[in-house]
Amino acid sequence: MTQPNPPRSLEAHLPHRGTMLLLTAIIGRSADTFTASVSITPAAAFYVPGSGVPAYAGLEYMAQTIAAGDGSQRLDNNLLPEVGFLLGSRRYHAVQDYFKDGDCLIIRVKNVFTAEGMAAFDCTIHVDDRLCAEATLNVYRPQSA
Asked: Are residues 124 and 133 in contact, defined by beta-carbon separation less than 8 angstroms?
């Protein structure tokens, strides 16, 4: 994978701001794959003291990674990131109930289908090379007006 070139802030890739910007860093990308990370700390959105972040938040981590990948491609073409819509998911499966304090989640999304603003991505979340969650997400980004 190659790093986005030139390096840009995480905020440059996404329309999310403040507490709703859940990603911690962009790791890299290839033609059809984008990878980001999330560090689980007590300051993380949705953190439950004594448990961590509920695994269902993984869906949003995956969706934001898709958005960051789209934003990265748009920036490379001198366009600004745009809002997209998560339409649904298939087969979201998490092997644990919570992502624990201190975990560094690696979120990888791979585009497997694109047509007329619709796309599907195979998504995974790993911690220390251990698969923690996976799903296929369906998204839509309207064409610019």
From this structure: yes
Q: Cis link prior to 42 (omega < 30° from 0)?
A: no
DSSP character string of 31-99: SSEEEEEEE--TTSTT-BTTTBEEGGGHHHHHHHHHHHHHHHHHHHTT------EEEEEEEEEESSSEE
Which tokens hold the place of 38? 């999330």
Long-range contacts of the stretch 117-121 (C-beta < 8 A, 24+): 117/141, 117/142, 117/143, 118/87, 119/66, 121/62, 121/66
Q: Does domain 10-140 have CATH number 3.30.1300.10?
A: no
Is the pTM higher than 0.85? The answer reads: yes
Q: In the chain, where are the structural domains located?
A: 10-140
Average of per-residue pLDDT across 64-86: 90
Tokens of 139: 């998204």
